[in-house]
Amino acid sequence: MRIGELSERTDTSRRLLRYYEEQQLIVSTRSPNGYREYDERFVDRVMQIRGLLDAGLPTRIIKQILPCLDKPRAIHFPDATPEMLATLARERDRMTERINCLIRNRDSVAEYLEAVSGGLAVDGRPDGAAAAPADDLKPV
Hints:
Protein name: MerR family transcriptional regulator
Strand order of the largest sheet: 1-2
Pfam family, one: MerR_1
Largest sheet: 2 strands, antiparallel
Domain HTH merR-type: 1-68
CATH architecture of the largest domain: Orthogonal Bundle
Oligomer: single chain
InterPro entries: DNA-bd_dom_put_sf, MerR-type_HTH_dom, MerR_fam
Keywords: DNA-binding
C-alpha cells in the first residue's frame, strides 16, 4: 500500500510516517515511479508505535524493542545495557500506573452515568427506545 493509504488506515499523518521511516521504525520499498510502498503488517506496527509513543517511550527505545512487536518473535539484544533494561522496567511500571488510573476513571464515569441517568440510556433516550429518524435531527 502507498503512504496515503497507510496514513488513512492508521490516522497518522504522512509526515509522521516519513519520520517513523527516518527513525527506522518502519520501512518501505520504492515502486518504479518512486512512491513508497508499505507491507500490510505496518498498519498494526504503526498503531503499536503510536501507542508506545503515547505511553511516553522515546523512539530510540521503541526501535530497540521492535522485535518484541513482531510475530513470530525472534528476540536478540546484544546491546541491551542494564540502563536500558532499567528504563524499560520504569516505563512498564509507569504504563501500569496509567492503566490503573484509566480503569478507575472509567469506572467512576460509569458509576456517575448510572446514578444520574434516571432510567435513561447513556444517549438520553429511555432504555429500549429507538433512535429518532435522521429527518427529525434537523437544526432548529
